[in-house]
Amino acid sequence: MSASPVLPSFDPESPVFRAHEGGKLGVHATQPLRGREDLSLLYTPGVAEVSLAIAADPTLSTRYTARGNTVAVISDGTAVLGLGDIGPLGAMPVMEGKAVLFKHFADIDAVPVVMETGTVEELVEAIVRIAPSYGGINLEDISAPRCFDIEEQLKDRLDIPVFHDDQHGTAIVVLAGLHNAVRVLDRRLEDLRVVVAGAGAAGVAVTRLLQRAGVRDVVVCDSRGVIHPSRQDLSGHKKLLAASTNPRGLAGTLATALDGADCYVGVSGGTVPEEQVASMAPGGIVFALANPTPEVHPDVAHRHAAVVATGRSDFPNQINNVLAFPGIFRGALDAGATRITEAMKLAAARAIADMVPEPTAECIVPSVFEPGVADAVADAVRRLAPTASGRVSRGGD
User: Fold this and answer.
1) DSSP single-letter state for residue 167
2) Which of 81, 161, 312, 321 has a CA between 20 and 30 Å from the CA of residue 48?
3) For 22, what's the count of Cα atoms within 13 Å in the CB-facing half-sphere?
4) Rg of the chain's alpha carbons, rounded to an integer?
């Protein structure tokens, strides 16, 4: 059973509830049904020819059904936004909203699929069984560490892109922002001392992608402090982090890690005391991404850092996954990709960064409404997408 959260005031006349009444999605036909002739083409008997052709050559399904432009947005409601485990029905409005974003920014038809939670194996099996209906799987709001195993098993079993946006979407946009932050500060990623606060889905993915982009000194902290190999309380994914991060062998609290650090990436919530932010190296970078309350308020961060970003739309430099996932899936679907690779993620981050040709401290990432962002990401991803033939797609080259 899902925990029962404290209910907000319910006012069906408020703009929020009125905007959601009846849901945010519908179904429309792409072909007209005007009479008997259309009926015979779109349904029986004409449809039988298409069904038999697809049965003989399954690759035709992406051409002659909606599958090639349809993504399942799947959640079990165990880690919804900042609301926690509110169950599948509570997750449904969020998944509908995600589908609206897919359609608006990349013209992808996304279908919310909420499931009762269960074991990793149960969820994987359920998703595998419905996967033939979709060209891609977007996992959303599934609690860690289960989300890691679910994604990995699905990637092994399916030949369509599987993408956990809470992990990789966040990581891609963080890397895009850092690409431009170091340009503003005339620094190099390789030289940064980065502290990632949070070892859940986003923290793990941010750490791994930054390392692949060339950052050599990453220290990860969880609620108990710096993750290092001597700790006896580490779960499986944290043991992997301990083995590949913290090259200076730090131990202690977040305060220890922040002392002299160049960059803080917060994906954990809570509040970082100002004196700890002040202990960072001068001219640093603060990405305080918890929503709705950043770990470091921008006013505080600006007193000590040169570049500041949050996850909120009412401050400059919003690190928003919407900059990444629509274009990533657009490119992957167009290429007929079988998976989303690390190279595709790195290319997506670079494409987002390049949408700001002259970054400043107040503008290191484009607005989510900047024209062309999804197209640029899609093009970058499409060029590197692995396909069923085993070859990498080169798009229109």
Assistant:
1) H
2) 161
3) 5
4) 22
Nearest residue to 199 (alpha-carbon basis) of 249, 149, 141, 265: 265
DSSP string, 352-383: HHHTSSS-BTTBSS--TT-TTHHHHHHHHHHT
Phi, psi at residue 337, to the nearest 5°?
-65, 145
The catalytic position among 98, 155, 238, 345 is 98
Chain centroid to CA 148: how far? Answer: 13
Exposure on the CB side of residue 271, measured as CA atoms within 13 A: 6
Those residues whose C-beta lies under 8 Å from the C-beta of residue 22, and which sit 6 or more positions away, are none
- 86 by DSSP, 3-state: which? coil
Q: CA 140: distance to chain centroid?
A: 8
Q: Identify whether 43 is a catalytic site residue.
A: yes
User: Active site includes 98?
Assistant: yes
- Dihedral angle sign, alpha carbons of residues 121, 69, 143, 174: positive
Quote the CA–CA distance of 221 and 216 in Å, as a whole number.
16
Q: What is the pLDDT of residues 39-97, one digit of tens each?
A: 999 999 999 999 999 999 999 999 999 999 999 999 999 999 878 899 999 999 999 99
CB 131 within 8 A of CB 137: yes
Per annotation, catalytic residue among 24, 43, 64, 155: 43
pLDDT, one tens digit per residue, over 231-262 is: 999 988 999 999 999 999 999 999 999 999 99
